[in-house]
């Protein structure tokens, strides 16, 4: 046996290691140098905006907005470098320099991506990357006389709602229920919330944007042209450029709104009631949004025996007396009483839906701190015909099998069905009765994750007969990489991407590909589910 083989083997490993660490080391050096050279302001302070894994605050910054703990577990890929720009010009420089140094960029605003693709990767050997974290670009400018607001990408939904409410009790914005979503990423996928039946999505209410394109230029609605502006309102984050800010249209809210949460267990007739809800939820008065939160609860503390609880959780844009009239006419079966109703200001309802305890001061919204973080896997579906009671019965069995599952059913209809499927890339419109979100949560690194995934996949196949078909639609803001992934940096198969692309965007996918091919022909803005370019078709 040749005694030199192990030695040669070792030498080549050492060479490989030194090459890869030399190049990462180089990027950690050359990227900041390049960025300072290309930035027009803050030249002195910028050096404190770069973090390598050796920096004391690297993990704190990386973890700060990562909402899914699964995606920051030790085995997940981590950025070579984190850069937190302080100005628009820094973002331009980051794009120009990443391109020049051929290093992949991941863009993060609020860090709520379900698969963490704004700061990690689910691929086996992903390309090394720099995290461009927009958390420091979070200015908000609300202008009541024109009913508009400019909001920088790193601001959260909660901060926007707070700033609006500070200036007016009768203005609001129709976006997500969670108060720590980054406006930057949230609106790129649609952004639904409790006012969607009256006003549509956040993305339906955007009137202008500032974006850094693949050449490093800043564009607004006028200079980017309408098909580019169309694509960024619902075509998913991280495909077309870096959103710097959105200009949004504010909507009217009454000075007093009403909320309620009414739980019903299986023993209290949950199955029949949920069947009825499916017949009214998308047709009832569009000032009323009643979603259903479904999870197991313990019914016998001695034996630990569980049952399924369905919670009817609602916002009504009006006062309780009027709400009781609407319910009496269209959904008497729930048995809503005046006692169940709480009247409050719109901003208090924001806190209520954000799961913040009743006496939390509204200023808490400015801290942009989520009330909880956990490990989770999720999927989504759209339902077009009520699920029969027999289908619900089978569902209960599956819910009771899993340790910590959760389903949220969100009603559509109203304004959602009046906007055409191609108005913006978000295509789930007329005919959708409700959207389902499936979740399984866990609280420790030690859990057997494969079991959770398996349960979710089984549930997803069980639901197939009851949900949308050809394609089986999915919500891009509930990203699910099991629907498919782009394989390698810059190498995207249009054919395989259209599998998940059609689910997220239906026929709008084709137009998104055309826009992408025009505005980013080199596919610089790439990630596991970014829109592919035409020339990558094989
Ligand atoms: C607890 C929780 C509650 C939620 N509730 C709702 C809800 O009520 N309604 C709803 O519609 N959705 C909801 N979502 C989903 C949410 O809308 C998406 O996760 C959304 O993408 C979050 O945006 P982000 O900026 O926080 O996320 P990020 O993780 O920062 O980004 C998400 C995606 O957008 C890209 N991106 C981020 N910033 C930019 C930018 N500036 N320019 C270009 N691309 C960018 C990222 O690369 C990534 O692809 C919820 C999510 C969580 C975790
Ligand atoms: C960041 O999160 C990881 C994974 O949950 C954890 O191991 C680590 O201690 C956290 N670090 C900081 C500084 O928060
Ligand atoms: C792109 O991916 C395909 C399929 O995985 C592969 O055959 C092809 O060689 C790749 N091309 C490049 C340029 O990496």
TrEMBL record:
This is FAD-binding PCMH-type domain-containing protein. Keywords: Alkaloid metabolism, Disulfide bond, FAD, Flavoprotein, Glycoprotein, Signal. Pfam families: BBE, FAD_binding_4. Its cofactor is FAD. Gene3D superfamilies: 3.30.465.10, 3.40.462.20, Uridine Diphospho-n-acetylenolpyruvylglucosamine Reductase, domain 2. The lineage of its organism: Eukaryota, Viridiplantae, Streptophyta, Embryophyta, Tracheophyta. Residues 75-253 form the FAD-binding PCMH-type domain. The keyword Lipid metabolism does not apply. It comes from Penstemon smallii. The keyword Disulfide bond applies. Belongs to the oxygen-dependent FAD-linked oxidoreductase family. Pathway: Alkaloid biosynthesis. Residues 1-24 form the signal peptide.
């Amino acid at each position: 046996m040749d005694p030199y083989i192990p030695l040669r083997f070792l030498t080549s490993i050492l060479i490989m290691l030194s090459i890869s660490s030399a190049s990462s080391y180089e990027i950690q050096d050359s990227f900041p140098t390049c960025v300072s050279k290309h930035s027009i302001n803050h030249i002195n302070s910028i050096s404190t905006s770069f973090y390598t894994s050796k920096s004391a605050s690297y993990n704190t910054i990386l973890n700060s907005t990562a909402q899914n703990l699964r995606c920051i577990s030790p085995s997940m890929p981590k950025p070579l470098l984190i850069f937190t720009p302080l100005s628009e010009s820094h973002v331009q420089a980051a794009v120009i320099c990443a391109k020049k140094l051929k290093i992949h960029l991941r863009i993060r605003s609020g860090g709520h991506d379900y698969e963490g693709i704004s700061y990690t990767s689910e691929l086996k050997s992903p390309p090394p990357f720099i995290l461009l974290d927009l958390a420091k670009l979070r200015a908000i400018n609300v202008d009541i006389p024109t009913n508009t607001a400019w909001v920088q990408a790193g601001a959260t939904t909660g901060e926007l709602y707070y700033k609006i409410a500070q200036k007016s009790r009768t203005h609001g914005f129709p976006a997500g229920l969670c108060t720590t979503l980054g406006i930057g990423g949230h609106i790129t996928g649609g952004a639904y919330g409790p006012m969607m039946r009256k006003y549509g999505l956040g993305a339906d209410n955007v009137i202008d944007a500032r974006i850094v394109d693949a050449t490093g230029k800043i564009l607004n609605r006028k200079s980017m042209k309408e098909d580019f502006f169309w694509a960024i309102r619902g075509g998913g984050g991280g495909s077309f450029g870096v959103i710097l800010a959105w200009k949004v249209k504010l909507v009217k809210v009454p000075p007093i709104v009403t909320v309620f949460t009414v739980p019903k267990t299986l023993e209290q007739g949950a199955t029949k009631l949920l069947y009825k809800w499916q017949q009214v939820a998308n047709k009832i008065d569009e000032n009323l949004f009643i979603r259903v939160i479904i999870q197991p609860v313990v019914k016998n503390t001695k034996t630990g025996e569980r049952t399924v609880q369905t919670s009817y959780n609602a916002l009504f844009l009006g006062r309780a007396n009027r709400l009781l009239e609407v319910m009496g006419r269209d959904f008497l079966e729930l048995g809503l009483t005046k006692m169940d109703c709480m009247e409050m200001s719109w901003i208090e309802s924001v806190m209520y839906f954000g799961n913040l305890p009743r006496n939390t001061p509204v200023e808490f919204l400015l801290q942009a701190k989520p009330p909880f973080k956990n490990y989770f896997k999720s999927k989504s579906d759209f339902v077009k015909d009520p699920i029969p009671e027999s289908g619900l019965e089978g569902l209960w069995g599956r819910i009771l099998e899993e340790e910590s599952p959760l389903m949220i059913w969100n009603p559509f209809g109203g304004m959602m069905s009046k906007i055409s499927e191609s108005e913006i890339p978000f295509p789930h419109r007329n005919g959708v009765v409700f959207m389902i979100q499936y979740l399984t949560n866990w609280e420790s690194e030690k859990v057997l994750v494969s079991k959770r995934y398996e349960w979710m996949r089984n549930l997803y196949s069980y639901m197939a007969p009851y949900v949308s078909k050809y394609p089986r639609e999915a919500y891009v803001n509930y990203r699910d990489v099991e629907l498919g992934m782009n394989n390698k940096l810059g190498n995207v198969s249009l054919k395989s991407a259209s599998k998940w692309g059609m689910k997220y965007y239906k026929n709008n996918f084709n137009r998104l590909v055309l826009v992408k091919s025009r505005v980013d022909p080199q596919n610089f803005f790439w990630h596991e589910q970014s829109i592919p370019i035409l020339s990558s078709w094989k």
